[in-house]
Structures are given as C-alpha cells and as structure tokens.
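One such given next:
>
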Amino acid sequence: MDYVSALLPPVVMAAFFIGLVVTIVKSQGGPNKAKEDAAVDAALARAEAAHQADGAAAPGRS
C-alpha cells in the first residue's frame, strides 16, 4: 500500500492542474471577451499616458 500513498499526491495535483487548464481555456473568449479587451486597452492607454507625461516632465529621462 506504500505505492498508493506515494502516487496519490501527484495524481491529485495532476487532476487539479488539468482542471485549472480546462477552466482557463473555457474562460477565454465568450460574452465577456469584449469587456476584458476594453479593460486591458484602457489599462495600456493609462500606462502609456503616464509614461508620456513622465517623459514630458523630465526631458533628460528615457
């Protein structure tokens, strides 16, 4: 029975990992894709604006 106790943790971890991957793949796209894309685009625009503002405030920085 030692082999069962030795194999159980990796099998359980593998099952949870497979479930995690399946959940991630299923959550991609769908009805919330446009909302998620808009949120990412807004965050990137804010980061770019902040970077541009920092560059304009200190011309010697790059």
